[in-house]
Each structure stands twice: as C-alpha cells, then as structure tokens.
Design a protein that fits this description.
The complex is a heterodimer of chains A (258) and B (260).
Chain A lengths: L3 E5 L4 H13 L4 E4 L10 H4 L9 E6 L3 E6 L1 H11 L10 H36 L3 H9 L4 H12 L4 H24 L10 H10 L2 H4 L10 H11 L2 H7 L5 H4 L8
Parallel strand pairs in A: 1-2
Antiparallel strand pairs in A: 1-3, 3-4
Helix pairs in contact in A: 1-3, 1-8, 1-11, 4-6, 4-7, 4-8, 7-10
Chain B lengths: L2 E5 L4 H13 L4 E4 L16 H4 L8 E4 L2 E4 L1 H10 L11 H30 L1 H5 L3 H8 L5 H11 L5 H22 L12 H10 L2 H4 L1 H4 L3 H12 L1 H7 L22
Classes of the chains: A alpha+beta (258), B alpha+beta (260).
The complex binds glutathione.
C-alpha cells in the first residue's frame, strides 16, 4: 500500500495538477476517484477528509504523525516537489521560482476561473441537468461552501449572466495573448526549465485548440501549441491523461504529434 | 544582488514586503510611491507583464537585478529564499505547505475583503474630488482592464451591498481562523513566526477600526496584533509612514472572486 492517497476527479484543472506532479516525481499513489458530476465530493466520507468539499485532496502517511491531509492543488504540488525525491519541478534560481509562483497564482485566480465559468456553462451544467430536479436540489443543499452552492445553481439552471460570460471570454483572450508572449520569450512558461508552472498551465489549457479555435491555433499562437504538444509528449503526462474517463479530457489526444 | 523596493504606505501588501525585507536583512533601496494615486503605473518605476497584470491590485514592486516583481507573498518568499537561514519560512515541506495554504486563504479571501472595505472607508472620498480629466490621466497607463474598473467604481462610489456583506463576513471568518490558531497559547500563527503572520497582519491591522464588531471579545488576536506591531521589522516598516494612521491608507486591492 502506498503512503500517498490522492482524491481526484479527471486529469483536468485542479485535480490534474497534483496527478501530473506525482507522476513526474515518480511517486506511487493510491488513486481515489471522485465523480464530480455525481457530487461525490459532498458525501460525508469525503467531507471527513476535506470539509470544504472541493477536489483535490491528498493524504500522506507519516510514521509518527499519522495521515496528514493536504488541500489546495497548487500548494500540494509545491509539497510534492519538496517532499519526494525525483526530478526537480522548481527551478533553482529564486527569481525563476518567483515567476513560477506568479504564473500559478495568475492562472489559479484569474485565468482558470474564466475557463471554468465557460466550461461549467457548456459542459458541467448540461451534464448534470438531466438528473431528477428534486435530487439536484438535495445535492445542492449538501454543498458546504455557500459560493459553491451559487456556482452549482448557475450551472444547473443555466443562469449565467451575459455580462459575466463576456468578461470571462475577454479574460480568456487576454490570457491566451499573455501565454503566447511568455512562451515566445522562453522555453517554458515561467523560465527555461519545465516546472510546476507548466503543469499548472497545461491543466487549464490542454483543450484550447478545440475550445477556443479562433484564438488558439497554429497560426495565431504557435508557441502555445508547441508548448502543449511538448508537455503532452512527456511520459508522465501520457500516464496522467490515460487515467481520464470522460470525453472532456480525451480531447487531449489532439495534441499528439502526427 | 541589487534590490529596489517601490512601496506604498506601510499597510496591506506594502507592509508585508517592507517587513519581510527587514526580517531578512537584505540591503535594498526604498523608494516610496503613492499607490492611492496609481503611481505604480507611472514612469517612476519599471514595468513588465507581471507587474501590470498582478492580481494583487495596487501593491509594491521589488526590482531585483533589473527585473520588476510583484505579489507580496511571493516577494516575501523570494526575500526569504535568498538568505542562508530561511528566517521567515519553514524549511520542512509540510510546514511550508501549511504556510502557503494559509497565505492563499488570506490572498484569496481576506485581502479582497479588506481592500474593499478599506477603500470604501478611506479612498472613495479622495477620488471623487478629481475632475474627469485629472482622473483619466491617472488611469491612462493602467493596463489591466479589471483593475481599472475597480478604480472607476471607487471613484463613482459604486459599492455593492452583497460585496460589502460578503467582505464583512470574510473579515469575521479571518478573525475566527486566527483565534482558533492562537487558542493553544502560541505566539505566532503557525508556531514559528513566518510570512503567514506578516501577510495576515498586513491585511487585518486596518480592519480593527472598520470592523470593530468582528474583533470584539477576540482576546487571542488582540494580543497577537500587539506582538506583531512591536516586532522590530513591523515597527520599522510602520515608522516609514508619512501620515499618522497608515492603517487607513488603502488602494484598490485584489478583486472579490467572481467565480468559484
Ligand atoms: N483552490 C482549490 C480549488 C479546488 C476546486 O475548486 N476544485 C473543483 C474542481 S476543479 C471542485 O471541487 N468543484 C466541485 C465543487 O465545488 O463541488 C484548489 O486549487 O485545490
């Protein structure tokens, strides 16, 4: 049995970050799949691990202190990099490290939420809407974080405002330009080495050529496209995305070089 | 390593950066700028994508060997990680995770709330006295559209009731979170003094006057606020203030989460 258990959904957004980081480090972990579309993350057995009811969470057994629970995908990645042997996923140079953290924060708190809003309106909402309405209301009532109850309601009832969707689309366009600029200045997103910033960024953008074909394509954003292919080429990424079960993450296949 | 720190009044993110600088003992040239007059966007200092698009809002900029860097928690990490001794961050991986996760809570929940309440109380009036043309001139160099929108709302006195009550709730929750940590009688939030103390203090110190009720009966936090204020690094940062009450100086901060 492994010392590490990861509670995750699909290799996508926040779940995919620790998955890929663990794979890159070569850390064996027990995979505990939670079906986000079935609201597994709000069930009592998972709330006992992460009372906020969000995915992912990781436990790491410590011989003296027992199972320690870690949440927050980006902080988990920094932990995974520091706590286990294997290839370094943080650059040595402190300024490069600062840039890695800057980009991860920017993606986590500015760009990814815009991708996510669009994704929830076109993918998550329609996927769960078919369920029995009474069951859905009961599921919403079980969500611990009030802001998540609002989010789920919007997704289920398709209640996104025109303005907020427009703002998300604006941010996606700005973010894509910023990524293209950064990747045309250096080999990887935050510095000239592959790092946690690439793992983070890839998880939000791997499907860009399909989801934003007018903004991200070989003509307009050649550096982004090359970067995505370069990440997906890595054995750790292949292994991580092979764990995906839904058509949503199978979109990654379009990054395979012909 | 040549360091120049462009900082606002010792409150919020500028306080974190200044105190982190003094804790770590680096030599840096200090250049005050007026964040409440959007001077961070002026040609007084160098810019790059990371400073222009920083989602911290109006915070300090640290220029290290020519490269401008933003976001106070990461500046503090940088200042710590360029010392031999790691004075303000644990070296153990789990303790570091605790610190980063704590700071993330502050960055994501407390900072936007404090900035919202702070600018409402202290900046709105000042901006409304500007003529359209003068204000436009201040805003012209701002590259981030959403940051500019926050400036505009403040000037026009647009404060959303829902955001106000959400911000008040977040400050109350932060006080409770700090109280819970200090419950076992410890001096500092995570045991050893760290960036978590600096960042939490920087955003909460100015809330005691605005959100009195949240602090009522919270004995732990009041003692901790006193210890923080007395810490030489914080005292030295506060001594740089050019007004008698630096905890009342607020500029637009991070936005309140719009999704998730
Ligand atoms: N800041 C957290 C956010 C975690 C999070 O929001 N995860 C999403 C999935 S990507 C989730 O659990 N959503 C389902 C829900 O809120 O019910 C992290 O980075 O780990």
């Amino acid at each position: 049995m492994s010392d590490v258990t990861l509670y995750h959904w699909e290799p996508n957004a926040n779940s995919g970050k620790p998955m890929l980081a663990l794979m890159e480090k070569g850390v064996e972990f027990e995979s505990h799949y939670l079906d986000l579309l079935n609201f597994d993350q709000h069930q009592p057995d998972y709330l006992a691990i992460n009372p906020q009811g969000t995915i992912p969470a990781m436990t790491h057994r410590n011989p003296k202190l027992g199972d320690r629970v870690l949440t927050e995908s980006t902080a988990i990645m920094e932990y995974v990099n520091a706590a286990f042997p294997g290839p370094q996923l943080m650059p040595d140079d402190p300024k490069d490290q600062w840039r890695v953290r800057w980009w991860m924060k920017f993606i986590d708190q500015w760009l990814a939420p815009s991708f996510s809003m669009i994704g929830w309106s076109v993918f998550i909402g329609p996927a769960v809407r078919k369920k029995d309405p009474r069951e859905l209301e009961a599921a919403i009532d079980r969500i611990p974080l009030p802001e998540r109850r609002v989010a789920w309601r919007k997704a289920i009832y398709g209640a996104f405002g025109e303005e907020e969707m427009k703002e998300s689309q604006r941010r996606v366009a700005v973010g894509i330009r910023m990524l293209e600029d950064a990747l045309s200045q250096r080999e990887w997103l935050a510095c000239n080495e592959y790092s946690l910033a690439d793992i983070n960024g890839f998880n939000s953008t791997y499907a860009l050529p399909l989801s934003q074909p007018d903004l991200a394509n070989d003509e307009k954003t050649p550096h982004i496209l090359e970067w995505l292919r370069k990440v997906y080429e890595r054995p750790a990424a292949k292994k991580t995305w092979a764990m995906g079960k839904t058509d949503m993450v199978k979109r990654v296949k379009l990054l395979e070089r012909s | 390593m040549a360091l120049v720190l462009y900082h606002g009044a010792p409150n919020g993110p500028s306080l974190t950066a200044l105190a982190a600088l003094f804790e770590t003992g680096h030599d840096a040239e200090l250049r005050p700028i007026d964040l409440t007059m959007a001077e961070r966007h002026s040609d007084k200092l160098p810019h790059n994508t990371e400073t222009e698009m920083s989602i911290e809002g109006e915070g300090p900029v640290l220029v290290a060997d020519g490269e401008p860097m933003a976001d106070s928690v990461f500046l503090a990490c940088y200042l710590n990680d360029t010392t031999q001794t790691s004075p303000i961050a644990p070296t153990d991986a789990f303790a570091r995770w605790e610190m980063m996760t704590w700071c993330r809570q502050i960055i994501e929940r407390v900072a936007p709330a404090a900035a919202y309440l702070g600018v409402k109380a202290h900046l709105g009036g000042k901006l409304s006295s500007f003529s359209d043309a003068a204000f436009e001139k201040l805003m012209a160099p701002i590259k981030s559209e959403d940051l500019k929108a926050r400036w505009n709302d403040i000037r026009e006195g647009v404060f959303d009731d829902e955001k106000i009550s959400d911000s008040k709730a977040k400050i109350k929750a932060a006080v409770e979170m700090v109280e819970a940590k200090l419950g076992d009688g410890r001096d500092w939030l995570l045991g050893e003094f760290s960036i978590a103390d600096l960042e939490t203090y920087a955003w909460l110190a100015g809330m005691r006057d605005i959100e009195l009720a949240a602090f009522e009966g919270a004995t732990g936090i009041n003692g901790w606020l006193g210890r923080m204020k007395a810490r030489p690094s914080v005292a030295r940062a506060l001594s740089l203030a050019t007004t008698p009450a630096p905890q009342e100086v607020w500029a637009p901060g991070p936005e309140i989460n719009r999704w998730g």
